[in-house]
Specification:
By secondary structure, the chain is α/β, with parallel strands linked by helices. Helices cover 30% and strands 24% of the residues. Bound molecules: adenosine-2'-5'-diphosphate.
Length: 340
Amino acid sequence: MTNKYDVALVGATGAVGEVMLAMLAERQFPINNIYPLASARSVGKQVAYGNQHIEVQDLATFDFAKAQIGLFSAGGSISDIYAPKAAAAGCIVIDNTSRFRYEDKVPLVVPEVNPEAITEYKHTGIIANPNCSTIQMVVALKPIYDAVGISRVNVATYQAVSGTGKEAIAETELQTRALMAGEAVSCDVYPKQIAFNALPHIDVFMDNGYTKEEMKMVWETCKIMADDTIQVNPTAVRIPVLYGHSEAVHLETKQPLSAEEATRLLANAPGIVVMDGRSDGAYPTAVTEAAGNDAVYVGRIRNDISHPLGLNMWVVSDNLRKGAALNSIQIAEYLIKTDI
Ligand code: A2P
């Protein structure tokens, strides 16, 4: 294969799609042709790729034989129809939706954790990009898991509205403005007011009382770590932050691990920045560190005073970058470095 690639970007006008375009340019991904694709509504609109503006094309009529790599981020129902079509046309799909994540033959990949799984794409032509909250958590779990094992993870997430898409960002901003002006709010994207609030509800409710977002963290952590014995107990919460997910992670290791040793392991792990000064403001937050940056930031690392094998940490990352676009592009970079 040539060393420049034709790339189709499905969902190019969306919150993740825009970041993908920006990051492909920023990371100088070797692109021959880029095809921004969206619905018929967006045909003719222009999207920014580096300093170029490129016209959006209609996904429904696009010939995927023209692309070698397809980055999909337009929702599960769109991937359901078009990802297999693209794969059949020889375009390797990196799918950012949950549609194929739990299929045995589809690898679910975080390059810092299980890059070796990428080659499994040969079964179906599809590689799944995990859920945003899972990605940042497993990046932080990996060095600890490798050193001492992990038996259980309790996690509460504080997730940004951009994970829901552009309409959710707009709703949060509108509600905030309305409330500041003393006006009533309307709720269209979320079932309750999101401005100045916290909603313990992300994605649909499942029969076991957990939400699907929570169960994604359970299923995906085990699949990515290739260890079905890790027990994960999540509570996923949406908060009125625009960009950057935060997570309070409480884990139980198999062997004891001091907070100092955990800090050393995390600081030496790929993709992680430790920020744990134990003083005012010396911890990472979504707005001040994560948003617009690539790393997974870890702070508040401390042993659990209630459990001899417990360790606590605060994990923050940009959900549109490492949680979506960056992880997908890292998978693509790995692919072109290895064997496509
Ligand atoms: P469009 O802008 O044409 O609707 P977000 O997650 O920010 O809501 O973005 C969703 C992305 O998925 C957008 O790029 C949107 O394109 C795209 N999309 C939604 N429905 C379709 C569809 N039926 N066909 C192609 N792209 C779609």
